[in-house]
Amino acid sequence: MRRPFALLAATLLTAALAVPASAADNDDGNEGFTINDPRITESSGLAASRQHPGVYWTHNDSDDGPYLYAVDGSTGDTVARLTLTGIGTPRDVEAISLGPGNRLFVADIGDNLGGTWPYVWIYELPEPKRLEDATVQATQYVVKYADGPRDAEAMVVHPRTGRVYLIDKHEDGGHLYEGPAKLSPKGDNVFRPIAPVELWTTDAALSPDGQDLAVRGYFGGIHYAWNGGKLERKGRLSVPLQGQGESVTYSADGSRLLFGSEGEQSGVVSRPAPGADESGSSGGPGSRADGGDSASGDGKGDSVKVGGAVVVAVLVAALFGLSRRRRKG
Description:
The protein has an 8-stranded mixed beta sheet, with no helix packed on it. A 5-stranded mixed beta sheet has the order 2-3-4-5-9, with no helix packed on it. It has a 4-stranded antiparallel beta sheet with strand order 1-21-20-19, with no helix packed on it. The protein is built from 2 helices and 21 strands. By secondary structure, the protein is mostly beta strands. 49% of the residues are buried. The chain has a single domain, classed as Tachylectin-2, Chain A, CATH 2.115.10. It has helices at 8-17, 308-322, and strands at residues 33-34, 43-48, 55-60, 67-72, 78-85, 95-99, 103-108, 120-126, 134-137, 139-145, 152-157, 164-168, 174-178, 188-197, 203-206, 212-216, 221-225, 232-236, 245-250, 256-261, 267-272.
């Protein structure tokens, strides 16, 4: 994907000041890591495995093929690549989520044409019990929106019901869309708007207990109480400044939020999840769980440490440009 020129300043700043997590102090990846695989250049989604502790699933945005990558969070190395069969050629894969029964859901929902494709796709497959390169049969679902085509980059799957939700991407904020109770491989699966989302959304994640929704954008994030899909805003998330902030996932135990970015050797930054102990095992001194769209922090895995004035300058410049130029999906 080609990103707006307005993000260049943030990209250069992040690259120059990146502070990778120490593998020696990061046994499970929950403290953040760097994706080392040279094949992963546009990591656009992130999902923490439940049956393989410390492993995170990701994928490229586009121009890669039907592949998923399992990354060991303690080393940043790829431990398995899955090749999906039974689907067409992916167009713009933007998100990945884990549902009940260790089922992986992959969202091919981006729309480079600005919301003009009449349908998009979701793929479902079992998470392998063994981590090794393999070919896996996937089920393909055709997805349409009740109110017409739109661009989207965020998908969550409820950890208990397995129901799939999408959040569309709009400069003025979008909506949470609810899919059918069970997706069908035959015919269209129509998603309907059920709640507003006050952010230009690039990804979202549901907590393992299904009670909290974390929504991220390029420069900020919002924490919602799930409330059965009737979202209740609780506060802001502490989202790191990243060159192309694209993804977010809860750690498998729900204590951390991990934020990913596109680019070669991209960093995954860890922050305490809302409500986590700020001084205990999940956060560490100086970590913030309540939000405030901070680009710095003291927790391991933080990708940038800059003065407040520099952060403000970069954000203002980037947002000024973004308001005048529509991103591709």
